[in-house]
Amino acid sequence: MSRLPDYSAPKHHGRRTQTAGPLQRLRMTSQTRRRVAVVGGGVIGLATARSLAERGADVTLFERSHIGAGTSGLSFAWVNSNGKNPQAYHDLNCAGMQEHVQLQVQARSQTQAAWLEACGTLEWARDAEQVARLRRRVDFLKQRHYPVNQLSFAELHRRVPDLQWDGCIDDVWQYPTECLVHPHVLMGWLRSQASSLSCVVRENTGVVALDEAPQRVTLQLATGDQWRGEACVLATGRWIPELTRRLGTPLAMINADEPNKRACGFLATTQPLTAQLDCNLITPELNIRPIGGGRLMLQAPDLDQYAHPAYVPALDGSVGQEFAARLSRLFTYVRPACLQSIQVGQRSRPADGLPAVGYLVPEGRVYAVVTHSGITLAPLLGRLAAEELMSGERHPLLSSFSPARLIGKTQHDFSEVETIHYPAAQ
Ligand SMILES: Cc1cc2nc3c(=O)[nH]c(=O)nc-3n(C[C@H](O)[C@H](O)[C@H](O)COP(=O)(O)OP(=O)(O)OC[C@H]3O[C@@H](n4cnc5c(N)ncnc54)[C@H](O)[C@@H]3O)c2cc1C
Questions:
Q1: pLDDT of 27 strictly over 60
Q2: Do 82 and 220 fall within a single domain?
Q3: In this structure, which of 72, 87, 281, 354 has its CB flanked by the most CB atoms within 10 Å?
């Protein structure tokens, strides 16, 4: 693993706020361990379960299928805050980047788990319009003190030696503190940490209904059993409306089952290739990252308009051929039939594009953590949610992200999330 970057922490002005009712009730039962359920076994649910267990809660995680069955199992998994707006969301993502590094350092002091590649990102643009847009973003990132350096063509060539050099590359930029995640390695570590802290992980156990009362929350399980405890965290990603509707607090999400490029995107993987790549590349035609063993993962945001969650494109169909052609224009030593899979990823995206983290209602016991960019944010949001659930203190980084703004609304109550074809709109 490459050396992990050194971040300067974003400054968090503002004070922690005390959340009302349920937390005080949780405190009253502090003689016994607080029973908390986490619903959903993706990165967000696992990170939250681990952080809760670390703080002494009696945690049970319910996953209706298997760990990583949702969006976390199929993600580009680039850790960044590159072009994230507004400022509060940028600050949250920067803190998320920093949290990954700290957690990875902690994990490596105890185990071999290495989910974070501190490899940085290289990006360039081609035609005049793209170049101007990239420069505007770079200027904006510099104003935000986000690390970004210009790279010479010689440096680019040294870094990516098998790049096909056609003289058309303009303006190369490097974001040295960005990282790539191997999601299954991260989920495996979070799960084993949570289990070692006595968290019970129940796979193949869906939650079909839930009920909140002043003293407790009750979950109805698909097995016919019930679970009762003092708080419940919904970390069910794009499926969160199923349970929030049951509670009478429907949460506005973008419908990931529609062929909608805001919610769906292609992710292609290659067979093992000899093309050398050890960092994340954002190029005019493709985003490319290494996923291990010589295999690459590809994204082409301009093709996402053809993505349909119900159809898997054929490798030799038009989308597959386009991915392969773009890759062979970029790298030497790429065979035409180099793809191994094309899948359609389905995003977990609140209707205004921003995270929703907090109690669904102020006096309630059900807490939601749902976001896009969840790979970047999982370790941080897991910790901040656990802090709020256990101590009653809400971190200032969360102040813009209360679920209240989404409750009782639908995606049609919000203006469309901008989908610009620069990849940091991840
Ligand atoms: C194409 C694509 C590219 C992306 N690229 C990036 C990127 O570069 N960087 C980044 O940071 N993020 C990226 N993301 C987003 C990121 O992957 C997600 O935000 C993140 O994985 C969401 O994690 P989650 O734990 O909230 O949800 P999920 O991983 O979907 O987990 C939810 C889990 O809940 C379970 N569940 C649902 N309902 C129930 C129930 N009733 N009972 C029990 N279990 C239930 C599901 O089975 C599932 O396992 C990308 C996403 C896509 C689709």
A1: no
A2: yes
A3: 72
* Structural domains of the chain, count: 2
Residues in CB range of 31: below 8 A, 6 or more apart = none
Residues 159 and 261 in one domain: yes
* 174 and 267 co-located in one domain: yes
Distance 353 CA to ligand 1 centre (A): 14
Would you say residue 1 lies in a domain? no
Same structural domain, 359 and 372:
yes
Out of 242, 341, 426, give the residue to mutate to test ligand 1, the one with the largest number of ligand atoms within 8 Å of its CB: 426
Domain of 197? 17-90+183-254+350-425
Within this chain, do residues 173 and 262 fall inside the same structural domain, yes or no?
A: yes
Residue 9 is assigned to a structural domain of this protein: no
- Best residue among 236, 319, 370 to mutate for probing ligand 1's pocket (most ligand atoms within 8 Å of CB) is 236
**Locus of tokens 């920067």:** 94
Nearest CA to ligand 1 atom 12: 373
3-class state of residue 108 by DSSP: helix
Q: Is 14 left (phi over 0), alpha (psi -120 to 50) or beta?
A: left
Q: pLDDT tens digits for 376-424?
A: 999 999 999 999 999 999 999 999 999 999 999 999 999 876 655 455 5
Please enumerate in sequence order all residues whose Cβ is within 8 A of that of 301, keeping only pairs 6 or more positions apart, or say none: 261, 265, 287, 419, 421, 422, 423, 425
User: Are 267 and 335 part of one and the same domain?
Assistant: yes
Q: Is 215 part of a structural domain of the chain? A: yes
Ligand 1 center to 164 CA (angstroms): 35
pLDDT in tens, 215-272: 899 999 999 999 999 999 999 999 999 999 999 999 999 999 988 888 899 999 999 9
**Does residue 89 surpass a pLDDT of 90?**
yes
| For the chain, counts of helices (H) and of strands (E) | 9, 22
Could you tell me if 412 and 291 lie in one domain? no
Q: What is the CB < 6 Å shell around ligand 1?
A: 39-45, 62-65, 69-72, 75-78, 206-207, 235-239, 242-243, 265, 267, 345-348, 370-376, 426
